[in-house]
Amino acid sequence: MITAIPMKAENISNHFSKADEVLFINDQAQVVGRFTNPALLDGCEGKQQLVSLILAQGANRVIIRNIGQQLLSKLLNQNLSVFHTKNGRTELQHFAAAVLSDCEQYTQVSQGRPSVKHIAKQANGGCCDHDHADGEAGCHSGPEAKRCCETKAGAESAMMKPCCNKKHSLMHQH
């Protein structure tokens, strides 16, 4: 069993996506990986990269102190077991155990914290964050459709998200 633990210095990070790095340990409490947290640099895409990193390292469970509902949803949707610990100074060996007696298992999105940024984005018409349940459908519809793809002076931009580039290239092939 591999456990992912967000770290800030030598302690468990107070906030999952703001950890400096993610530590991976096996069931003997041996460190099997240590990676810089991709969520620190790339906003929504970085958070998706963080989930992908956890999956790529073969983690079965994640230890958290605080986590937003959006990211918790992504972890739970990947069938990862998410455990909340109250103490950021807990010895790592404790998290290698098969049973995490001092941790509460999070099984519902509502157990995470509401995201102030997500709520603000929704109030401003939403965000085209490319994490739609039906793929990219609807990405370019509605009044705020061009928010992530909008370009200056109407020129295609290298700064567009990859799916926007893909969509725009498909639209221009007609």
Give the assembly state of these chains: single chain
> What are the segments in which pLDDT stays under 50 over at least 5 consecutive residues?
129-174
C-alpha-based Rg, rounded: 18 Å
Structural class: alpha/beta
Kindly state the number of beta strands.
Answer: 7
Number of helices: 4
How would a textbook summarize the main sheet?
7 strands, mixed
Approximately how much helix is present in the residues?
10-25%
**3D shape:** globular
What's the helix-strand series?
Answer: EEEEHEHEEHH
Q: What fraction of the residues are assigned to beta strands by DSSP?
A: 15-25%
Characterize the structure shown.
The protein has 174 residues and is an alpha/beta fold. It contains four helices and seven strands, in the order E-E-E-E-H-E-H-E-E-H-H. It has helices spanning 43-56, 69-77, 116-123, 162-172, and strands at residues 3-8, 11-12, 21-25, 31-36, 61-64, 81-84, 104-106. Strands 1, 2, 3, 4, 5, 6 and 7 form a seven-stranded mixed sheet that branches. Strand 3 and strand 4 (31-36) form a beta hairpin. The termini are far apart. The relative contact order is 0.13. The model is unreliable at 129-174 (pLDDT under 50).
